Amino acid sequence: MRAESLIRVLTAGAAVAWALAALLALSFVSWWLVLLALLGLVFAAPAMLRRQRMRRRLRIAGSGAPDAAAAGWQEVLDASADREVKLPENRSVRAIAARIADTHELDEAAKQKLRLIVTELERSWYAPASASTRPDPGLEQAVREVLGALALAHPLRPRDRFWPRSVLRRPVPTGPDRAGSNRATPDQGTASAG
Known about the structure:
The protein is mainly alpha-helical. The chain has a domain at about 45-160. It has seven helices and no strands. It has helices at about 1-30, 30-60, 70-80, 95-105, 110-125, 140-155, 160. Helix 4 (about 95-105) runs antiparallel to helix 5 (about 110-125). It is globular, with a radius of gyration of 19 Å.
């Protein structure tokens, strides 16, 4: 796992180095080309961040890690938020899932996959940690199918592709609080529906 992190950091570093080199080369041609390139990067940054988050969450959801269900659930919340759905912060995960299913008019197969994600999320919160509590191996596929159903039911508008709402708003509850109730706590580092 450490080698994968190092590869990701080195890849990101190489991309930044190439971008800086390209900007330097453009600066020899004209300053306004550099300004235009910088504006393009700023314009594309939220969409690139959203795609990076989605890839990371799907990878975690398929890894069988203890936080696999939370990553899958957060991705479903963000995909719903990107489609302008306001989700209540003070409801249970099951109530939020029902709201997502109703609002997006998911078919029965997608609702089943959404129930699997919620069940795995609750299991990760409340079941004792052991080898028998590993997430369902079909979790990543379930998340992908729910995301596909959301995309079919409500395709993203062009504006929402470049400026996803899930990136441009504050974080929302996604986990059990310290008192052990079924209420949620903020997901650190990512945004969710709000």
